[in-house]
């Protein structure tokens, strides 16, 4: 009984202290990962992130020990495991606390180790501070000078009076999962189409497309969310020609924001090709030119004719060339469209017509997809 009281008391004390440390450091990590900035700022960000993650792991260890402790009456071994996890969490807490106190006490004048205090280390080309979350536009490169404008919502038609050479995405750090985050996409054409650049992390970016004619700025869920997409080979959500359904869940859906090759997705469900055999792709012919081997078509190119969407997200279909820069897509098309009030997705996609309406040197068809979960 005495052990249980001691265990619960120390657990509550450690949980509260670890949570306070983690919250204090995690919420004060610089609002944007300072990649490409000066070294002291970068080291400060690494240090704060390490402290926050350390105390987060201590909380996880305490949670595991608590689970073993709750079920310990059923087995002596589980009680022993609860004690081991608790001792590990306690040891980690003491080590991290000692490290924290030594650094912040013995090095108070070193800015890179002043946890919770703002850095005041101007770079060689310091820029005016931004006050609101969203996308800022600059005439000069590297976000120098005063911003020309600011957006925190989509602009289907974007009019610029001066040449824009850089943008800054002002958003909270991706570590602050309980705060608002913004993403931005700039397009070469109106109606959220044409060549595009996608910005998911807060930072300054130099523009690599000639002109901006539409801009997508929205809040997004960094961990993804629940939803599903169904891709059809036939228009109007007709599954007779074949379909493929993707299910999204928080955490596992987050990587889709970075992009995924459509050639790796096929029109199949539960390892069964949903495309009629006569319409499947032939991969091997005999000497008389007859098809002897077929495979299920993938989603690349013009194979997608309609997309049914269920969830709060954007689907960005794009053409990404091997020769293109990694952060610019030659051709982009975003769904659902602005006039799609119910966000059900496009019922009929006419790729040739879309390519004819945008100013691209050649006809491009999508080979990548991004799925970005948004917040209203």
Helix and strand arrangement:
Blueprint (H helix, E strand, L loop, with lengths): L1 H25 L12 H32 L5 H31 L27 E5 L10 E3 L14 E5 L11 E8 L3 E7 L3 E4 L7 E7 L6 E6 L10 E6 L11 E2 L6 E2 L2 E2 L7 E5 L5 E5 L10 E6 L1 E7 L9 E7 L15 H7 L10 E8 L1
Antiparallel strand pairs: 1-2, 1-3, 3-6, 4-5, 4-7, 5-17, 7-18, 8-9, 8-15, 10-18, 11-12, 13-14, 16-17, 16-18
Concise synopsis of the structure shown:
The chain is of the alpha+beta class. It folds into three domains: 2-113, no CATH class; 134-219, Crystallins (Gamma-B Crystallin, domain 1); 227-375, Crystallins (Gamma-B Crystallin, domain 1), CATH 2.60.20.10.
Give the biggest beta sheet.
6 strands, antiparallel, barrel
Query: Which fold does the CATH topology of the largest domain refer to?
Result: Gamma-B Crystallin, domain 1
Assign the CATH superfamily of the largest domain: Crystallins
Roughly how many Å is the radius of gyration? 26 Å
Please report the distance between the alpha carbons of the first and last residues. Answer: 51 Å
The residue fraction in helices comes out at 25-40%
Query: What order do the helices and strands follow?
Result: HHHEEEEEEEEEEEEEEEEEHE
Number of helices: 4
Mean pLDDT: 77
- Domain module tally: 3
The percentage of residues in β strands lies in: 25-35%
How many distinct beta strands? 18
User: In CATH terms, what is the architecture of the largest domain?
Assistant: Sandwich
CATH class of the largest domain: Mainly Beta
Point out poorly predicted stretches: 5-10, 12-38, 109-127
| Shape by Cα distribution | flat
